[in-house]
Specification:
CATH topology of the largest domain: Aminopeptidase
Structural class: alpha+beta
GO molecular function: metallodipeptidase activity
Number of strands: 24
Distance between the termini: 27 Å
Protein name: Aminoacyl-histidine dipeptidase
InterPro entries: Peptidase_M20, Peptidase_M20C
Radius of gyration: 24 Å
Number of domains: 2
Strand content: 25-35%
GO biological process, one term: proteolysis
Pfam family, one: Peptidase_M20
CATH architecture of the largest domain: 3-Layer(aba) Sandwich
Oligomer: single chain
Helix content: 25-40%
CATH class of the largest domain: Alpha Beta
CATH superfamily of the largest domain: Zn peptidases
C-alpha cells in the first residue's frame, strides 16, 4: 500500500466536521512531533508544519496545502455520528468508498499526500499548510497568518483528476435568508411527502451536470397541482454547497389518488428534463396536528421564481460554467423559514449582479438577508514554470499530457496568492475522485499511487 493511502485510511477514522477540526489537527501535530518537524497553530486554528529539505535538494521553500475538514452527508438509514464515529470505508472495483456516507477524500487525501511527500528522499524545504473550514466559508485560509510562510510556490492538493492541472477557480457569495412565517389552524388530515432518488453533487463542480434540484422539483409541482391545499413543513439540504437530492414536506391534500397520479406524471416529465432516472416519491398519512403556513402557495411561488442552476456558460472555454446559483438548504424551525443559496462566477461583476438581484427579490418579500463572506476568483499563468514542471511530470508518469483546466468552484489558491504576494504562483492537482460531497464519493486507488510519483518528481525539480 502507498504511504499516502495508509495515512488516508487513518484520517477516515478521525471526525473532522467543518469548524470542528480539533481531532484531525491533534493527529497531525502528533505526527509532526514524531517526525521532529516544527509546527505552529495560528490564531484561527490552521496548522503549518515545517519540513527540512533532503540533503541534495534546492533551498527554495515549496508550500503543499490541503484543508482538514470534510463535507459529511449520509443515507437516511446510516447511523454514523459524524462528531464521534469513524467512517466505514471499503474497497470496490479499484476505488475506496464509505458505506452510507461521503468518503472525505475531499480533502483528506490531499492531507495524506502532503504527509507522504515529507518522506520523499529528495525534496526542497516544505511548508505543509493544513487549513480549517474550507467547506463552510473558508475562514481558515482567510484568517491564515502569512507571516508563518516563506514559500512562493504553492501546490494545492484539492483537485480531482491526476490528468489535470487547475489554474483558475470561481468566486462565490453565500446568501442566507430568513423569515418569520404566519400559520393557521387546520383540521384536515396531514400527509408526509418525500421526493428522493436524485443525484447528489457539489454545487460548483457538478452544477452543469443537469442533475436537477429536489427542492425545485417540489416547488415546481406545487405550481402545477391543485391537490395541495396546505403546507406545514419543508426540509431539504445537508450543506449550502451540496445540491439537494431529497426533499421532505408535510402537506394537506384534497384527493390522494389524483395527487399520486399528478405527481407520478410530473416526475416522469422531470426525468426527461434532468439526469435523474431514479427519482421517485413516498407519501403517507401523519397522525398529528400541525398548523399550516398562511398563503403557502404564494410564498413558494415567489421562491420558485428565482431560477437555479447554470446562469451562463463561458464564451472562451465552451465547457466551463461561468455563472451559477444553487439553492442548497431550506427548512422551517421555530416558525422561521430559512433558505441558503450559493452563487458562483468567474466574472466578479456577474457574481455581484446575480447576488444583488436575488437579495432584492427576497427583501421585497420581507426576508432578512445576510451574506456569507465570499471571495473572488483566481487565475494562474498557463505558461508559468510551475505549470510546465508539473505538466512534464504528469506526462512522464501517466504517458499523457495533462489538461489545463479552470474550475467552477472555490479553491483556497486565490487567498494564498493574495496573502503571499504578487511573486507567488499556485496550481491545484490531485488524484482521481468522483461524486464528492455525496454518498457515492469514491477515490481511485491507482491514481493516488500515480499522484505520489508525480509529486515526488515535481519536488525533485523545484
Amino acid at each position: 500500500m502507498s504511504q499516502a493511502l495508509s495515512y488516508f485510511r487513518h484520517i477516515t477514522t478521525i471526525p473532522r466536521l467543518s469548524k470542528k477540526e480539533e481531532k484531525i489537527r491533534a493527529f497531525l501535530v502528533d505526527w509532526a512531533c514524531d517526525k521532529w518537524y516544527a509546527y505552529v497553530i495560528d490564531t484561527v486554528g490552521n496548522l503549518v508544519i515545517s519540513v527540512p529539505k533532503a540533503w541534495t535538494a534546492s533551498d527554495e521553500v515549496v508550500i503543499l496545502q490541503a484543508h482538514m475538514d470534510m463535507v459529511y452527508v449520509q443515507t437516511p438509514d446510516s447511523t454514523i455520528d459524524f462528531e464521534t464515529d469513524p467512517l466505514d470505508i471499503y474497497e470496490e472495483d479499484g476505488y475506496l468508498r464509505a458505506r452510507g456516507t461521503s468518503l472525505g477524500a475531499d480533502n483528506g487525501i490531499g492531507v495524506a499526500l502532503a504527509m507522504s511527500a515529507s518522506e520523499y528522499p529528495n525534496h526542497p524545504p516544505l511548508e505543509l499548510v493544513f487549513t480549517i473550514d474550507e467547506e463552510a466559508g473558508m475562514s481558515g485560509v482567510l484568517g491564515l497568518d502569512f507571516s508563518l510562510l516563506h514559500g512562493k510556490s504553492v501546490i494545492n492538493l484539492d483537485n480531482e483528476n491526476d490528468q489535470e492541472i487547475c489554474i483558475s477557480s470561481a468566486g462565490w457569495i453565500g446568501i442566507n435568508l430568513e423569515k418569520q412565517l404566519d400559520f393557521e389552524e387546520t383540521w384536515a388530515p396531514l400527509s408526509a411527502l418525500s421526493i428522493y432518488g436524485m443525484k447528489w453533487g457539489h454545487s460548483g463542480v457538478e452544477i452543469g451536470e443537469n442533475h436537477g434540484n429536489a427542492v425545485e422539483v417540489l416547488l415546481g409541482f406545487f405550481q402545477k397541482t391543485s391537490t395541495v391545499l396546505g403546507v406545514a413543513d419543508i426540509q431539504a439540504g445537508t450543506a449550502s454547497n451540496v445540491i439537494p437530492s431529497r426533499v421532505d414536506t408535510i402537506i394537506v391534500i384534497s384527493d390522494e389518488i389524483q395527487f399520486r397520479q399528478e405527481l407520478s406524471e410530473y416526475l416522469s416529465y422531470i426525468r426527461t428534463q434532468f439526469d435523474c432516472p431514479d427519482i421517485t416519491f413516498d407519501i403517507e398519512k401523519v397522525q398529528e396536528n400541525r398548523r399550516v403556513i398562511t398563503d403557502a402557495q404564494a410564498l413558494f411561488r415567489h421562491i420558485h421564481a428565482i431560477p437555479v442552476g447554470v446562469m451562463k456558460m463561458s464564451e472562451k472555454i465552451t465547457w466551463l460554467v461561468q455563472t451559477s446559483i444553487s439553492l442548497g438548504q431550506i427548512s422551517i424551525k421555530g416558525g422561521r423559514l430559512k433558505i441558503t443559496y450559493l452563487a458562483r462566477s468567474s466574472k466578479n461583476d456577474e457574481l455581484s449582479e446575480l447576488v444583488e438581484r436575488v437579495e432584492r427579490h427576497f427583501l421585497d418579500l420581507g426576508f432578512a438577508v445576510e451574506r456569507d463572506r465570499g471571495y473572488p476568483g483566481w487565475q494562474e499563468d498557463p505558461e508559468g514554470m510551475l505549470v510546465k514542471i508539473i505538466s512534464t511530470e504528469i506526462s512522464r508518469v501517466t504517458g499523457n499530457p495533462p489538461k489545463i483546466i479552470a474550475l467552477h468552484a472555490g479553491l483556497e489558491c486565490w487567498a494564498l496568492i493574495s496573502g503571499l504576494g504578487t511573486w507567488a504562483t499556485a496550481v491545484s492537482i490531485g488524484p482521481v475522485m468522483y461524486d464528492i460531497h455525496s454518498v457515492n464519493e469514491r477515490l481511485e486507488i491507482a491514481s493516488v499511487e500515480r499522484m505520489e510519483h508525480i509529486l515526488e518528481g515535481v519536488l525533485k525539480r523545484l
